[in-house]
Write a structure and sequence with these properties.
The chain has 147 residues and is mainly α. Helix content is 63%, strand content 0%. It contains 6 helices and no strands. The relative contact order is 0.07.
């Protein structure tokens, strides 16, 4: 309930925050609907090969840099390894320890070069790991301009 003594500035501020709150709520509902539609399409009437191809779209998107990919992998492994029927259920403590070690000791750089390199997909990373040029960095690789 608005205060009867609020100034025009306070009223304007309150109304703007209310509008912002409605926008954020509607935006989050839209984002959730996009997720739900995407997941429903992945689960609907496709064989495993077709599903795998569709899932790859998300994992090869340019926003999927090292840190988000690692976080997703870690969450997937954590949930999967807590299912008693999972073949590695008994080894889940080892997986947790290894993943914790990786996260603690591997620097997930957020520089523009690393972000753009990781976002270009596997070709830059594959090139950077070739035996002939082990020290080749992302900035040294020849890539087509990103669309």
């Amino acid at each position: 309930m608005p205060d009867q003594t609020e100034t025009p500035y306070e009223k304007n501020t309150r109304l703007q925050y209310e509008a912002l709150g409605r926008f954020v709520e509607q935006f989050e509902m839209m984002v959730n609907e996009v997720r739900e539609i995407s997941l429903e399409r992945l689960l609907e009437g496709l064989d495993d090969h077709q599903k795998g191809g569709l899932i790859e779209i998300a994992f090869h998107h340019s926003v999927m840099t090292a840190k988000p990919l690692f976080d997703i992998m870690r969450a997937i492994l954590a949930d999967a390894l807590n299912i008693p029927a999972h073949p590695h259920y008994k080894d889940r403590a080892i997986f947790k320890e290894v993943l914790g070690h990786i996260e603690k000791n591997i620097a997930f750089s957020t520089t523009n070069e690393t972000t753009s390199c990781m976002g270009r997909g596997s070709s830059a990373i594959t090139t950077a790991k070739t035996p002939k040029q082990p020290n080749l960095s992302c900035s040294d690789t020849k890539q087509a301009p990103m669309a």
